[in-house]
Amino acid sequence: MENPVNLILVIFGASGDLTSRKLIPALFSLKVQKLLPEKFAVMGVGRTSISVNDFRKKMRESIISFSEEKKPDLKQVDQFTECLNYMAIDNTLFADYEKLKINLQELSEEYDSASNYIFYMATPPSLYATISENLTKAGLADQSSGFRRFIIEKPFGYDLQSGRELNKKLHNLISENQIYRIDHYLGKETVQNVLVTRFANGIFEPLWNRNYIHRVEITSAESIGVEERGGYYDSSGALRDMVQNHLLQMVGLTAMEPPSSLDPDAIRNEILKVFQSLQPVKEADVPKQVIRGQYTGSTIRGECVTGYRYENGVARDSRTETFVAVKFFINNWRWGGVPFYIRTGKRLPTRVTEIVIHFKRTPHHLFQRETGIVTSNQLIIRIQPDEGILLKFDMKEPGSGFNVKNVNMDFHYSDLADIRVPSAYERLLYDVMTGDSTLFSRDDEVETAWKFIEPIQSAWANNPAVKIYGYPAGTWGPSVSNDLIEGCGLTWRYPCKNLADDGLYCEL
Ligand code: BG6
Q: Is pLDDT larger for residue 488 or for residue 281?
């Protein structure tokens, strides 16, 4: 892999969690793999006034605690922290950006960086436009003496209108190809592997369509609750937080047509086409196609777990969903009539993200099964944890007769003992440095995804009669979500059992 050209990475929000838990450890891993530019510096920018030395010490501790490297070499950590700098600024004060400009010029000379700057906004989204505006005004977005790239994190707006407005504001200042919108799911190795599984193997693609696939199911479950993010989460909910971005991107990669090349736009154009083909869920059909839920208090392995409404920062009468399941269709030749089911939730029994392709059953059932249930083949792409691919198929049980058993052909990434699966941020930071925008969401993708979400948001906002179901923390969400899946005895795939010892499903 090539090394990026010399550059300076400016991180706004450098005193925040994202910087210390994800960004700095990811940069350190790139350093260990010798994938950083020959001359590279970080300029941390934050509101907190701390010295460069204290910033370096804090980041040293973060690397030790959060690095993906099994045992970070402390000598290497110390060497790395020498490239870290820090300055306190008020993000809203233009005069501070002029000081930043001077500091960057000095660093550029020291690091021979030819004024290549990347600006990472690890800040609340409400500051993206302000920071970009001040940087532009200070001449820091001008690319005549080196590239200037802007990284922003989701959420990109909170609905279609605000998403459009954000894009508009940014486009008035900088061009789309300077913007890198992070959806960290696209940085996950196994999410990218969906493309390879589909388009590097001859055996799957001929079956990857309405003729052979019965339904597609995507689950992204978390066992944790909202933790310290109650304030943010209560104004967001699972639909905005996970579905509009991470889950739809996984739908895009699963359903897209083969791209003509690996060119960033070739791939993103195909994902966009999937989003454009999503059959809108009519407001009136929301209760039939979308199930929302909220976790209630329960006992998991003997321990009491707080209900969502009693988490810090959450309104006691909140109707924000911590679980959502959606059934929808993709209106195109490949997928016409094939239902897609997606679900995500907090406080579910386990942390698992997987894409399940359910193939159609054989047209005639010749063989007997011990269970009496005719199974169908499933291809399960395990995004996390225990990344891998599982194919479920029928096999003859040894012995007389033709008894059939469903067995697994299972590949685990962990079997590749010498290969460490890189973190999403490692991959994404490296890609911004080399200018590869394939794994970043484009303006039109974001807006089209909001368009799909909009009627669901409206139905919930305009019609309080649309139910929100309580589910005990540690269970698989409201049991009515099974009703979305039509067909005799069909349910979601449950990778493990409920953990809660008590509690009943209810309507809130
Ligand atoms: C974030 C959401 O984008 O993704 C969080 O805001 C969620 O609420 C997280 O917990 C899940 O990411 P991962 O990589 O742990 O699956």
A: 281
The one catalytic residue in 184, 246, 364, 412 is 246
Q: Which residues of 64-78 are buried (b: 16+ CB within 10 A; e: fewer)?
A: eebbbbeebeeeebe
50 vs 54, 86, 131, 195, 412, CA distance in Å? Answer: 6, 8, 21, 44, 44
pLDDT of 504 higher than 60: no
* Ligand 1 atom nearest residue 245's Cα: 3
185 Cα: distance to centroid of ligand 1 (angstroms): 9
SS (HEC) of 259-313? CCCCCHHHHHHHHHHHHHHECCCCHHHHHHHEEEEEEECEEECCEEECCHHHCCC
With vertex at residue 182, the alpha carbon angle to CA 97 and CA 412, rounded to the nearest 5 degrees, is 145
Q: b vs e for 428-439, b when ≥16 Cβ sit within 10 Å of the residue's Cβ?
A: bbbbbbeebbbb
What percent of the chain is predicted at pLDDT more than 90?
77
Give strand ranges (E) for 319-433.
Answer: 323-328, 340-345, 352-359, 368-369, 378-384, 388-396, 403-412
Nearest CA to ligand 1 atom 10: 222
Atom of ligand 1 minimally distant from the CA of 188: 14
CA neighbor of 246 nearest in space, from 424, 75, 54: 424
Q: Tell me the pairing of strands 7-12 and 117-121.
A: parallel
What pTM, to 2 d.p., does this model score? 0.93
The residue whose CA is least distant from atom 6 of ligand 1 is 241
Helices (H), 138-188: 160-173
The per-residue pLDDT of the chain, averaged, comes to: 92
Is 246 part of the annotated catalytic residue set? yes
Do 358 and 378 form a contact (C-beta atoms < 8 A)? yes
- Whose CA is closest to atom 2 on ligand 1? 241
Distance from C-alpha of 257 to C-alpha of 282, rounded to nearest angstrom: 26
Name the nearest CA neighbour of 131 among 148, 106, 146, 112: 148
